[in-house]
Amino acid sequence: MENRSLQMPDVNRDKDISPPRLSIVRSASVIRPTSDFRIRLADESFHAAMLVCGVAVIALLGLIVYELISSSGLSIHAFGFKFFVSQNWDPVNDQFGALPFVYGTLVSSLLALIIAVPLSVGTAVFLTEMCPRMLRGIISFLVELLAAIPSVIYGLWAIFILVPILRVHVEPWLGRYFGWTGLFEGAPFGIGMLAAGVILAIMIIPIIASITREVMTAVPRQQREAVLALGATRWEMIRVGVLRNARAGILGGVILGLGRALGETMAVTMVIGNRPEIAKSLFAPGYTMASVIANEFSEATGDLYLSALVEIGLALFLVTIITNAIAQLLVWSITRGTPARANAQ
Amino acid sequence: MPNKAHAVDIGDRIPAVGWFRRLKDHLATLGAVAAVIIVLAPLVAIFVYLVYKGVGSINWAFLTQTPKPVGEPGGGMANAIVGSMVILLIASAMGVPVGIGAGIYLAEYGQGKFGKVIRFTADVLNGVPSIVIGIVAYAIVVLRQKHFSALAGGVALAIMMVPTISRTTEEMLLLVPGSVREAAYGLGIARWRTTLSITLRTATSGVITGVMLAFARVAGETAPLLFTAFGNQFWNLNVNQPTAALPLQIFTYAISPFDEWHRQAWAGALILIILIVGSVAALRVVSSRGMMKGAG
Q: Is there a single domain that holds both residue B36 and residue B101?
């Protein structure tokens, strides 16, 4: 007890000096009484225990990869590469082709990006360059609150609020004026690819917006001042001085959002219509990789059926990992040098 | 003379922002404001509808009874609320210690290459779709046990908690100034003791916030529970049996064709949001008292 009361004031006083850290820490641990075997034993075992936890993170990823590959072996052997180009999903006759799900996943995610990217970048531009300081905290808090809402609640809201709005107001209008493109054809059900794209867009906006904001903040102030000094308007300054410098990071944010959209399950399952068909019209129902697993996994009878579903999971896993890795690298390339991140490195 | 010409040149250009460029500037501002409004509209709509549709359906029976068969009015989600808590308890018991341990390793020992590998793996793990984690939990728990269980659901959610907690713990520990550690070493305190009683203690509030964020994230997860915890219409406190969970129950009721169940889905959603926001807020208040003075 006496010990503690001695330390704490020192701690607070030294706070703002912040001397170089690691080298001193290391040498200190060497200088300390190495003769005391028990202290060293305790130190080493603590180190080992923490190492086990760290290794557990890697082990978890290994476990995921192993389980996915070993459980999907049956389907991989039976169908080979044909699995991803066949449209025939027929559990009754043990025929499985995943193309409709791949198509549904890609189209709904791309649709989500088309809607979400301009809105997210606009929000980030407003927050970093135009917003009065008073509003900034509130708005960014609200945008981040969007990320905290569970997927199933988005789905519930989409079924009862978004879908009727799409059916009654948006889809008839789109059909009348843009029906000729073939993308907005057929009866407006509300439920379908368009609804899935819209709800996905709402869900990935917070991710893209917060990363865009982060990389825009990382653009040095001098860039802005230099462009303004050349006589640019505010928008020209944002376009030339900020967005152009931050584009790699913004792209990273967009890809991160894409990764999230590809793997998103519940909300999409609730509004996409769940029919394994490939249709050109966005009004038509579709199916995604994640939602076919969600709907059919617990009812799958037969080893091959289950194995085919796991193979879809494996494909989903690989695609999201690759997109996320690319996104991480892009975001790091922008934010690495900034003071805000220096602490975390 | 060249000097003068130069000055005239600049003077000419600064005020001469043409009407077209000014229009574009105004349009951009307008566009950004419109984007914010469009982004915030769903948020407002979701909360308004949650409260509007949910409040009317929450009553004592909803909080204390199990679901009634189709067609009978009344009934509630008591078993799902308790089931969710059981699953989350299992998940936290497994995921939190491992996550914090990994975070300590990264912050205190992970400066080398191996630390980098773990850090990258954690980030990758963070991006794995939750439905895929469900498949893995199914393969390692359900297939061995031969039946769905709360334990399997807990394992799935624990896997999701680990990467989030380890990364936030690491960040929080690194915020503690090195001089704090050195002061402890200077007093002859062992390294493990310093980490636990000085560094971790100083960062407690930040670490708890990270844990709560991970908790809030998995509390609303439905996809990994579909074929692990599976759901249950009756009371069940046995962790080896299929167990109801609030998000699962909301999903089942939302896609059902019955008005009475739709009403209950809204009520369940409101309860879920309250539980998530409430638990985060409560722990924040508790942990912010008297800690986190040394770092920040």
A: no
Do A94 and A220 lie in one domain? The reply is yes
- Asked whether the beta carbons of residue A325 and residue B130 sit closer than 8 angstroms, the reply is no
CATH number where B266 lies: 1.10.3720.10
Tokens 């557990």 map to which residue?
Answer: A56
Rounded to a whole number, what is the distance in angstroms from the first to the last CA of chain A? Answer: 35
Q: What's the domain range around A239?
A: 82-342
The mean pLDDT value for A309-313 works out to: 96
Do A292 and A176 belong to one domain? yes
Query: Is the same domain home to A87 and A71?
Result: no
pLDDT digits (tens, 9 = 90+) for B187-239: 988 899 999 999 999 998 889 888 988 998 899 999 999 999 999 888 888 88
A32 touches chain B (CB under 8 A): yes
**In this structure, what are the phi and psi dihedrals at residue A270, rounded to the nearest 5 degrees?**
-75, -20
Question: In terms of residue numbers, what domain contains B35?
Answer: 2-57
Considering its fold, how many domains does chain A have in total? 2
- In whole angstroms, what is the distance from residue A339 CA to residue A62 CA? 34
- Are A123 and A26 found together in one domain? no
Q: With beta carbons less than 8 A apart as the criterion, state whether B127 and A320 touch.
A: yes
Contacting residues of A for B149, CB less than 8 Å apart: none
ipTM: 0.88
* Nearest by Cα to A113 from A226, A284, A250: A250
Q: In angstroms, what CA-CA distances link A8 with A148, B100, B183, B234?
A: 37, 24, 9, 53
> Which residues of chain A lie closer than 8 angstroms to B18, CB-CB?
none
pLDDT at A55: 96
Within a domain: B221: yes
- Both A150 and A239 in a single domain? yes
- The per-residue pLDDT for B205 is 84
A18 pLDDT band (50/70/90 cuts)? very low
Same domain, A51 and A118: no
The minimum CA-CA distance between A321 and chain B, rounded to whole Å, is 6
Residues B107 and B48 in one domain: no
Q: Amino acid letter at A294? A: A
Same domain, A179 and A39: no
Task: Give how far Cα A248 sits from Cα of A140, A331, B151, B198, B225, Å.
Answer: 22, 7, 43, 40, 37
A59 and A128 within one domain: no
Q: What are the φ/ψ torsions at residue B243 (nearest 5 degrees)?
A: -130, 140
Q: Per residue in B233-292, pLDDT tens? A: 888 888 899 999 999 999 999 999 998 899 999 999 999 999 888 877 776 666 665 444
User: What does chain A come to in residues?
Assistant: 345
**Smallest Cβ distance to A298: which of B139, B227, B250?**
B227
The C-alpha atoms of residue B215 and residue B226 are separated, in whole angstroms, by 18
Q: How far apart are CA A281 and CA A184, in angstroms?
A: 5
